[in-house]
Amino acid sequence: SGRVEFRDVRFAYDPERPILKGVSFEVPAGKTVAIVGPSGAGKSTISRLLFRFYDVQSGNILIDGQEIGAVTQDSLRAAIGMVPQDTVLFNDTIAYNIRYGRVDAAPEEVRQAADLAQIGAFIQRLPDGYDTTVGERGLKLSGGEKQRVAIARTILKAPPILILDEATSALDSHTEREIQSALDLVSKGRTTIVIAHRLSTIVSADEIIVLKDGQIAERGRHAALLAER
Ligand code: ADP
Ligand code: ADP
């Protein structure tokens, strides 16, 4: 389960300025679609519409064939996980931040998710570095480490659908490779929509959608898109 479908979706924040002018695509269950396009093209808007932060003007958004308008906010949030570009953390332990999406999780589960995301060593720290076990201040979490917290949270939540908003330039190339492997781990077998900036994602995606002026300008697999040029 977890098939996502956009059918001729039209949307504008301001009626004078349409952002999506009839966008249709499908992400089969367990597959990955990468969305690329210039800044302002409407990529993040697609993720906000899937969460139903806004309603579409016309067209349909469906999950497993069901209109998202007919799904409760709670079940939408349970079905969709998000690893945003910039993770905002609560001023509480990393363990608390990881279990936020699933408060019923046992401490061992939180620990496992943290280990998989490679932040197992930090879980008793606060985002500012304060270590609650030894009562001392350590290093503040870096941007990459904050992203790992979001990844650990998503591993624990295990949603059928995942939205990844890849950061453009915040990470150095070593961190980027490490984050990429953690992201590969969490997206494996899940329906994934990536707002893609990394070449590795684009190469491995099942489909790439190029969004331009509110419409899909091109679509296909990486090799096919390159062959057209
Ligand atoms: P992308 O993710 O491709 O960079 P966005 O989906 O964030 O693009 O934004 C698409 C367009 O919609 C941009 O021109 C942006 O300025 C505009 N926009 C985004 N959010 C809002 C909003 N809440 N109200 C009005 N305009 C918005
Ligand atoms: P942007 O790319 O401009 O940061 P997004 O479209 O990625 O915006 O997300 C919109 C906002 O919703 C972000 O602040 C994001 O952290 C937040 N968000 C993501 N997932 C959820 C969720 N499950 N419930 C509530 N808010 C969420």
TrEMBL record:
Residues 4-229 form the ABC transporter domain. The keyword Transmembrane applies. Signal peptide: none annotated. It is found in: Cell membrane. Keywords: ATP-binding, Membrane, Nucleotide-binding, Transmembrane, Transmembrane helix. GO terms for molecular function: ATP binding. The keyword Membrane applies. It comes from the Bacteria. Its main location: membrane. Belongs to the ABC transporter superfamily. This is ABC transporter ATP-binding protein/permease. The lineage of its organism: Bacteria, Pseudomonadati, Pseudomonadota, Alphaproteobacteria, Hyphomicrobiales. The chain holds residues 336 to 564 of 608 of the full protein.
